[in-house]
């Protein structure tokens, strides 16, 4: 019976008239249960929770109304009622709220890439980042050296945030730097991570060092 139902589902979906509740009265309990099982199986394939459905009770499911509610789902009946189908009512479904967590996007920086500095010059690097996530970046969040040349103050490879940055706000992420002693072009990348050192953003800067 179930195999037949699923064949009928494929053939009859959106192609047959609505079956009124009184037209189900001619079906046996076994046939009603088969229709019920097919309905539940189809609903589950659409990732809809069926845990709150009544036990396999045809009188409940096929009483005055069809009580399994989901959107635009139709299931054909067995051949005992040819060319007919049950059309479930359309009901609004709640849109799940995405849990984004930590997320960022680049806004601006200072100094700009390609800026010339003198050997040994002390300066701050500031990346202004937009908090596009759902968490507030606290002072326990930090930038950490990632790759390239670490042209920062000796012994430093971590720089905690100097202020909290809430979702949808742009805030400064600052590294105190010292230009290398040898002229040349240098690039440094750092990562932004949370209090558990889970990284979620990489930024970098390129400077030109002159004598």
Which segments are poorly predicted (pLDDT under 50) over 5 or more consecutive residues? 1-24, 57-86
Arrangement of strands in the largest sheet: 4-10-9-6-7
First and last CA, distance: 86 Å
What's the quaternary structure here? single chain
Helix content: 10-25%
For CATH, the homologous superfamily of the largest domain is named as Immunoglobulins
Structural class: alpha+beta
The main sheet comes to: 5 strands, mixed
CATH architecture of the largest domain: Sandwich
Number of domains: 2
The coarse silhouette is rod-shaped
Q: Classify the beta-strand content into a percent band.
A: 25-35%
Average pLDDT taken over every residue: 74
CATH class of the largest domain: Mainly Beta
Q: What is Rg?
A: 32 Å
Query: How many helix segments?
Result: 3
Looking at the structure, the CATH topology of the largest domain is Immunoglobulin-like
Describe this structure in words.
This protein is of the alpha+beta class. It folds into two domains: about 1-85, no CATH class; about 105-210, Immunoglobulins (Immunoglobulin-like, Sandwich), CATH 2.60.40.10. Helix content is about 15%, strand content about 30%. The chain contains three helices and ten strands. It has helices spanning about 1-10, 30-45, 60, and strands spanning about 75, 85, 105-110, 115-120, 120-130, 140-150, 160, 170-180, 185-195, 200-210. The strands form three sheets. Strands 4-10-9-6-7 form a five-stranded mixed sheet, with no helix packed on it. The chain is rod-shaped, with a radius of gyration of 32 Å. The relative contact order is 0.15. The model is unreliable at about 1-25 and about 55-85 (pLDDT under 50).
């Amino acid at each position: 019976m179930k195999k037949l139902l699923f064949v009928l589902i494929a053939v009859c979906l959106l192609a047959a008239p609505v079956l009124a509740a009184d037209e189900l009265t001619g079906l046996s309990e076994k046939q009603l249960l088969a229709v019920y099982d097919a309905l539940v199986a189809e609903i589950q394939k659409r990732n809809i929770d069926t845990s709150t459905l009544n036990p396999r009770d045809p009188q409940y499911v096929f009483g005055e109304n069809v009580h399994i509610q989901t959107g635009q789902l139709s299931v054909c009946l067995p051949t005992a009622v040819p060319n007919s189908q049950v059309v479930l009512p359309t009901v609004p479904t709640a849109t799940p709220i995405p849990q984004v967590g930590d997320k960022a996007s680049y806004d601006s920086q200072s100094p700009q890439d390609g800026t010339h500095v003198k050997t040994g010059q002390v300066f701050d690097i500031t990346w202004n980042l937009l908090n596009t996530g759902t968490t507030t970046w606290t002072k326990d969040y930090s930038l950490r050296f990632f790759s390239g040349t670490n042209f920062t103050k000796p012994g430093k490879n971590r720089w905690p945030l100097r202020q909290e940055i809430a979702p949808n706000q742009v805030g400064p992420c600052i590294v105190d730097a010292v230009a290398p002693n040898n002229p040349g072009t240098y690039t440094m990348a750092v990562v932004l991570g949370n209090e558990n050192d889970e990284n979620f953003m990489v930024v970098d800067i390129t400077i030109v060092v002159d004598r």
